[in-house]
Amino acid sequence: MVEVFRCGLLCCFLLFCSVQSAASKTKTWTVLGHVVTMEGDPIEEVAVRLEIDSRAKGDRSMETDFQGNFETDIRLESGLRIKGTLIASKKGYLEGRETVELGVGDECSPVEIVLRKPEEDSSRITMEMLLAGLTLSLKADALKKLNEESARDELVRGCNELVEEGNYLAALALLGKSAEGAPGCIECRLLYTLALLSTGGWSSVMREIEQIGDSERPEPPIVMGSLQAWRGRPKEAAGSYMRALEADPEQALALQELGRAAVQQKNWEAADQYLSRSLRAGAGDAARLLRVPVLLELGDVQEAAREMDLYVEGREIRKLPQDGRVLYYTVQNRLALMTQGQVKSVVEQSMEELIETLPDLRGLVPTADQSLLEEILKKTGEAVDAFLRTMPNTASLERVQQELVGKDGKVKESLRHEFYYLVFSASKPGMGLREYRSTLDGQDVVMAPALRKGLMLTSGFTSASSVFHPDNWSGADFRYLGRQTVDGLETHVVAFAQKPETAKLVTRFVTDDGAAQILTHGIAWIDVNDSHVIRLNTFLLNPVPRVRLQKQTTEIRFQQVEFDAGSLKFWLPQEVRIMVDWRGRVLRNQHSYSDFKLFNVESKEERKPPSVPEPALSLSEPDDGGIDPTVVP
Fold first, then answer.
1. What is the secondary structure of 215-244 as a DSSP string?
2. CATH entry 1.25.40.10 includes domain 127-337
3. pLDDT tens, 389-429?
4. pTM for this model (two decimals)
5. What is the DSSP letter of 431?
6. Hey, what CATH class is 351-632 in?
């Protein structure tokens, strides 16, 4: 009996040891990390999949929480080392991939996966631009270090998949083999790093660059600069590009991106210097498209036209990319403006001439001292910028009196209308207000009877003070005229005149005879206390005989409108008077605005605006089948 007991006890002990031994041969690894945007913001509800050897046991699918975090446990046999790939995907983003290695060390480090949106920000370097700018020189130097024909062929095919075909996963596999087969080839490893970046492996790229260390090549700091630029860190990016120039002072892509950084800082002279150097170093179309607007900002329209001709180089304009096409027409329009004659602007006229010809200036206390102008422009620019950024969606009742005046000065045709006038706030930073009009019964304005009686319909007054926005200062000359009391308010009076070589707020006048560009000059009355424009008069600076446009004047009176029991206050148009001398006819409009209300853009009662900009001025001949002329901002 005792022997049986001992035997049973021994069996239990051996079984226990066997279980212990089996347990000691496995280890649980926690795979965790987070998913973020290029700017570092967490992304929730991202599907994360772990592709790994089938010998690993555990859940392979995860989803990020509201903080962008994910986590799962994987069991491996002790001593087993396995590489895996984390793949993150979400609608609206490009796929992100990062590698993980299990079986090394005591635990798995957290992994950051960066997702970027498919639409590239045109103000930053694109992935395609980065790959094309670095791959060629790296490939040439790498081929010098590879002796075997098969290895050389593999690298060439990988570079082709990366740049020409855009097959990033195939490039990753081929260039990964090249780097692994030639551990002493830094260029091979850098090409593999670019392939990692193209597949969304930001963290892996950072790790690779750290391991490469100081290679004395310009590519690593350029890659780092691009990552910093994508993360919205322009100063850090510029520092990285400068380090690239230390390795190669004529590296075209680094020079181009330093030019781009200077553009973002509005340092036009520095931008032109870097972009000119980049083009001499062999940069391509991207650098030209960056330099042309810089030259326009500097007022060098002829050089901008020369660069644009080099960019076009025999291609059909209609087949150019949209950015290039828009820029081409911008340059052509600027050239046309410079060839047109101009009247003597209010900036150039003497004080005596101004007071004599402009009755609204009676009561002005004039001054020749311009020392206050810079501070007035600064404060007014800040007020205009704040208005454009914070203006909510508003609706008002608009009453319009339209008149056609004969050569004898008598009114030949007259109509009165009431409209709903809607102003939509900027949908994105940097975008202006959108103004839209509909009839009270819901018809689009093109159905209004006025457009079939040879009259005009005008709009675009809410953002008329944009000429004082800091972004538009370079497009006009300004002159301080003095102080004047207007409607009981003490005001600064400032004259301005747009410059054909740098003006941005150029208006396009379209008729059945063709199109022409319009510049304006005018007078603004600015409240000395809060720097808001309370009255604005503008005049046509460049009469256009080709479309028979001789005069155009606009007089806008603004009023302070309160919303939400006074918690929101904005200066909005109260009364507008327009006069146009076109084709020998004088057309006059008077607009008045009242009953201002806030409205929600999601409201069912709100009509969506058209997808094209609302014209500032629309004119029409009587119904003769011709094309309605319009003035488009």
1. -S-SHHHHHHHHHHHHTT-HHHHHHHHHHH
2. yes
3. 889 999 999 999 988 888 777 888 888 888 888 898 875 55
4. 0.69
5. -
6. mainly beta
